[in-house]
Amino acid sequence: MLAGIPFHPKDGIDDLLGRLADYVTDKGLRVAGYVQKRRADRDCGTLVYVRNLGSGHEMPITKNQGAMARGCKLDGDALATLSEQLASDLDHTPDILIIGRFGRSEAEGRGLRDVISKALELGIPVLAGVRDEYDDAWQEFHGGYAQSLPFDETAIVQWWETLSLESEPQNA
User: Fold this and answer.
1) Domain at 2-36+75-142+153-163, CATH class
2) How many angstroms separate the CA atoms of 45 and 73, rounded?
3) Distance between CA atoms of 41 and 4, rounded to whole angstroms?
4) Distance set, CA 82 to CA 58, 78, 95, 111, 157 (Å)
5) pLDDT tens digits for 22-63?
């Protein structure tokens, strides 16, 4: 019910997770979660946006701190808003929750940890991208409960198909 995909910063995790979301919705099922999108910014180089996989709504998750800053910073208010949106999306019982990043906030005990836990309590499978530097925190978070999937679309689809088959009602 819980799986992580280890990845490095240059890997296309968002494209990979987006394709899985498309695969699931093409089967007529519901997806909750998010992936990140990057947009060029004159001051900090790149602003990061998140796209809600259920609604398609996009919002910035980083904030520009001005021309003299060194990069952009995660916007804690935006992360809290995303968490609230995803928690609300879980009330509609999606067939999967896709978390684009188990990152610094989650490693520090914040971020989307509660959303992941809520999904699991509701019996909703969760798939998360796990950036390499936060793997130890991910391991601690799930305590051996999660599967580790390779950065491979076929393997991820097989994981999803297996879960889908296991959750189908059996004919009596």
Assistant:
1) alpha beta
2) 12
3) 30
4) 10, 6, 19, 9, 26
5) 999 999 999 999 999 877 666 656 678 999 999 999 998 887
